[in-house]
Write a structure and sequence with these properties.
- The complex is a heterodimer of chains A (506) and B (381).
- With 506 residues, chain A is α/β, with parallel strands linked by helices.
- In chain A, helix 2 packs across helix 3, helix 17 packs parallel to helix 19 and helix 18 packs across helix 19.
- Chain B has a nine-stranded mixed sheet with strand order 1-2-6-5-4-3-7-8-9, with helices on both faces.
- In chain B, helix 11 links the parallel strand 7 and strand 8.
- Chain B is elongated and about 80 Å long.
- Chain B has 381 residues and is an alpha/beta fold.
- In chain B, helix 1 crosses helix 3.
- The chains are: A alpha/beta (506), B alpha/beta (381).
- At the A-B interface, helix 7, strand 16, helix 17, helix 19 and helix 20 of A face strand 10, helix 15 and helix 16 of B.
Chain lengths: 506, 381
């Protein structure tokens, strides 16, 4: 009268194995779930009961106790439905008890007995060891990615029961059921007319992992440029690809055909996004779903209209962007989500939407000061590159020559990244000040140029380090070992100062 | 009681009226016509039963005129009414003359305002070129003895006075501000404010402690117009405070001149429209002297012409451009920059040079102090 069936749940982006224990005994008919279930888990009773009856199986008119072990881990979602149903069937002898021993079941049940896919299948599958995995047909490709077990998939409960009883063989793996709605390739840089500096800034950002701030009037092409950045980044390596796939799977985001995400993701949350949707922690009690920042891990996080994001949201982004991970603490669980993103932000120079050129603004002093204040502060220190954007001339839009393709630029980026990696540095943007003297030694001319800028107060000490990091990347792109005046000049032309300090000396 | 004592009472009474809550220039003018006796007005307000003056009466009931005068003088501020020696004569003749004028600086300089005066005005949101022009004009005019009048605001106004202060000798600079004379606005001009008071005069019709409320600035502009023989607009947007000063000047028959700006530059739109409407252009200080000569006979002659490069501060003795970018591309970039603020993209497109070369030239020019970069926008310094 007792059956134990393996399953798994997801917390954050990590899977956690769960044993579903069902005890069926005499007494008044009742159904109890214990072991930190959330609302969706507790509702499973009605789904499981309906699914059994629709499949012409028997619902025990006895006292049913369901325990989800380990009881200390919060469970969420409907992924345990299938395991619960199988455990009840095994406890009541409707399927042979020995047949379920070497299987783990993850899936949601429909009232008609359909087995539905659940988010986070990659992580859930990774947490299951030494067992065959039974999942919904639509989840099969995701479960296969882990590559450690035999994956069985089924469309409905009847197929599973028949296979467990030995009345039929397992259905063949499905083909082409994965969501193909997301484009496999990001937009190409060749479509961008004009924007010579924009292209170059993207190339440097991609090569050195430098965060980029673009400021320009509405319609000048900021978003268009930002969406081209993932195409310049090297494809994800296997570890990174699996990590990104796990995050997207756990967040319930669509996966590309084949399941594995190999192209760096691009996420552009709207400025009305809540803190939870950005840094994660949603999805009901205990679920702690990853947010947009984690979804952009190993890719690009694009914040359009940076000045419109509430200050409290921007504050929350600071730590993840500095440390490359998010720590979430809740009463029942604390987790870490990966968040190694390349941050790209766009902003209007001021609320009136003018070009940003001195003298062009029509804002009142107060409105402008308020806007600049929002864009100042610690988050601004995270941007190594700052780009002012103007609308390209009509002649460039109509007649201008076609620019380089993303693939060509990506080759240079890959070569530059290889140079920086050969020095033992993951990306130039993370170079510590103490490392700069060693890896980014400046030529005498370059030192003289920067000294004149420092002496005239045009560069702060922090700005000085940022210039050297970016100049290191420019030199890497040029294939140079030492950092020269030309490299420093480009870094200076794309330098980012705190807007407030820059204004006050104007 | 001596005549002197009587006049002090009048001043105290006038100061009290001006400082009452809710008092504006026109109400004050109505209460204190030129021949009015301020002491009498205060007394009549106190005694008057009419409902119309009830509000004023209640407010003045609690005031002590002598204490008010002490308060003003303790702040280092003088006070004058039309007709006083400390009140500029040409302002007293104006039909909207402030009934009470507060003065900071040596009141012995008040008669200097009867000399030729020129207002240099413009927008707060100006370009570096505009500021530089205002400075040049301010210095040149001050040096030959033309009083430069302006508003001490951020931007063109402040630059005009910076120029006036740069002159080694000449006429005292005169500023007319909107706030009380002990309320420095904008805060960033605290030093400039003190230097103008040290060399010249700061005037206001707002009582000490008055905040820079928005309505005070258009009212202040009429005083600038009334004090000036000519008004020079250096940079102005299509609408704004400078255009209000222009209207006030034209109502008073003062000549308005404008400095032409690049076509399409929003900061010069107002000035360029004035030129189209027939204002005389200002291309050099001599144009202003010529305009003054048309209306006055006591205009000083302009000294020897100074080249613009003389008056740039800290213009370093041009160091040789380092590296292979020397000459060629630096020149091309300077030419592409011209006098319009431009960003990197525009300079690359206009000069037709590769981005690396342009940024090299920019970094070099900037380190030499020839150009200035603000938030990614380059301007000639």
């Amino acid at each position: 009268m007792l059956a134990i069936v393996s399953s798994a749940t997801v917390i954050g982006v990590d899977g956690c194995p769960v044993s579903v224990e069902v005890h069926v005994a005499g007494g008044l008919p009742a159904y109890t779930v214990v072991g930190l279930p959330d609302a969706a888990c507790r509702e499973s009773r009605d789904r499981v009961r309906a699914a059994l009856l629709s499949t012409e199986l028997e619902w025990p008119q006895q006292r049913v106790t369901v325990n989800l072990a380990p009881t200390s881990v919060p469970k969420s979602g409907a992924g345990l439905d299938l395991a619960t149903a199988i455990a009840i069937l095994a406890a009541t002898g409707q399927v042979p008890a020995h047949s379920v021993a070497d299987h783990a079941f993850v899936g949601e049940l429909g009232l008609d007995g359909t087995v539905r896919p659940v988010p986070g299948m990659v992580s859930a599958a990774a947490s299951v060891t030494d067992r065959n995995l039974v999942v919904a047909a639509a989840n099969a490709a995701e479960a296969e990615l882990v590559g450690r077990h035999r994956v069985r998939s089924a469309r409905d409960l009847r197929q599973i029961v028949e296979a467990l009883r030995g009345e039929a063989s397992w259905p063949p793996p499905p083909e082409g059921v994965v969501d193909t709605s997301i484009t496999p390739t990001p937009p190409d840089l060749a479509d961008v007319r004009g924007h010579l500096t924009g292209r170059r800034a993207l190339e440097i950002a991609a090569a050195g992992g430098h965060n980029l701030l673009m400021s320009g009037p509405p319609g000048s092409g900021k978003t268009m440029l930002a969406t081209r950045l993932p195409g310049l980044l090297p494809p994800l390596e296997s570890d990174a690809a699996l990590e990104v796939t796990r995050i997207h799977s756990a967040g319930g985001l669509p996966l590309p055909p084949g399941g594995l995400i190999t192209i760096p993701p691009f996420r552009a949350p709207h400025h009305s996004a809540s803190v939870v949707s950005l840094v994660g922690g949603g999805g009901g009690r205990g679920a702690l779903r990853p947010g947009e920042v984690s979804a952009a891990c190993h890719g690009v996080l694009f914040l359009d209209e940076l000045g419109e994001f509430p200050p409290v949201v921007l504050d929350q982004l600071r730590q993840p962007i500095e440390e490359g991970r998010i720590r979430l603490h809740r009463a029942r669980a604390s987790i870490e989500l990966p968040a190694r993103v390349l941050l790209v932000a766009a902003t209007n120079p001021c609320p009136c939407g003018a070009s940003g050129a001195p003298g062009s603004c029509r804002c009142t002093d107060a409105a402008r000061a308020r806007y600049v204040r929002r864009l100042s502060g610690p988050l601004m220190d995270r941007f190594d590159l700052r780009l002012t954007i103007v609308r390209p001339e009509t002649s460039e839009l109509l007649g201008g020559s076609v620019g380089e393709r993303s693939a060509v630029v990506a080759q240079r980026v890959a070569a530059a990244r290889e140079r920086s990696r050969s020095r033992g540095v993951a990306s130039n943007a993370t170079l510590a000040s103490s490392q700069l003297d060693e890896v980014a030694s400046l030529s005498d001319d370059a030192v003289g140029l920067l000294r004149r800028h420092l002496d005239q107060g045009r560069l702060s000490a922090r700005g000085f380090d940022r210039i050297r990091r970016v100049a290191r990347t420019v030199a890497d792109l040029a294939g140079c070992d030492s950092v020269d005046t030309a490299h420093v000049s480009e870094a200076l032309a794309l330098r980012s100062d705190d807007l407030r300090t820059a204004r006050s000396v104007a | 009681m001596s005549a002197h004592r009587e006049h002090t009472d009048d001043l105290a009474a006038a100061a009290t009226l001006a400082a009452l809550a809710g008092m504006g220039p026109s109400t004050l003018r109505a209460m204190l016509p030129d021949d009015a006796d301020a002491t009498e007005v205060v007394r009549s307000l106190r005694g008057a039963p009419a409902e119309r003056v009830a509000g004023w009466r209640r407010r003045i009931e609690s005031q002590d005129p002598d204490a008010e005068l002490r308060r003003v003088r303790a702040a280092g501020i003088e006070i004058a009414c039309p007709g006083d020696a400390g009140y500029p004569r040409r302002l007293a003749d104006d039909h909207e003359a402030p009934a009470v004028l507060y003065v900071r600086g040596d009141t012995g300089r008040i008669p200097a305002i009867e000399h030729p005066t020129a207002a240099i005005i413009g927008t707060r949101r100006c370009t570096r070129a505009g500021r530089s022009t205002a400075r040049q004009l301010g210095e040149a005019l001050t040096e030959v003895g033309v009083v430069v009048v302006s508003g001490l605001a951020w931007g063109i106004d402040g630059a005009a006075h910076e120029g006036a202060l740069r002159a080694r000798c000449g006429a005292p600079p005169v500023a007319v501000v909107g706030s009380g004379l002990d309320v420095v606005y904008p805060k960033r001009h605290e030093q400039l404010w003190a230097r103008v008071a040290g060399r010249g005069l700061i005037l206001s019709e707002a009582p000490p402690g008055a905040q820079p409320d928005a309505w005070r600035f258009p009212a202040r502009n009429r005083i600038i117009a009334a004090l000036s023989d000519v008004v020079i607009v250096v940079e102005s947007h299509g609408r704004g405070g400078s255009m209000i000063t222009v209207d006030e000047a034209q109502r008073r028959g003062r000549e308005v001149l404008a400095v032409p700006g690049p076509l399409g530059s929003p900061a010069s739109q107002g000035a360029n429209e004035l030129l189209r409407d027939g204002c005389h252009p200002v291309l050099e200080p001599a144009d202003i002297i010529a305009a003054l000569n048309r209306i006055r006979t006591d205009v000083p002659a302009l000294g020897p012409v100074r080249t613009p490069s003389d008056d740039e501060p800290a213009a370093p003795a041009a160091p040789v451009l380092p590296g292979p970018v020397a000459g060629g591309s630096a020149g091309a970039v300077l030419e592409a920059l011209g006098h319009t603020p431009s960003n990197l993209e525009q300079l690359v497109v206009r000069s037709g040079r590769p981005l690396a070369e342009v940024s090299w030239a920019l970094a070099t020019l900037e380190s030499m102090g020839r150009i200035v970069c603000t938030d990614g926008w380059y301007e000639m310094s």
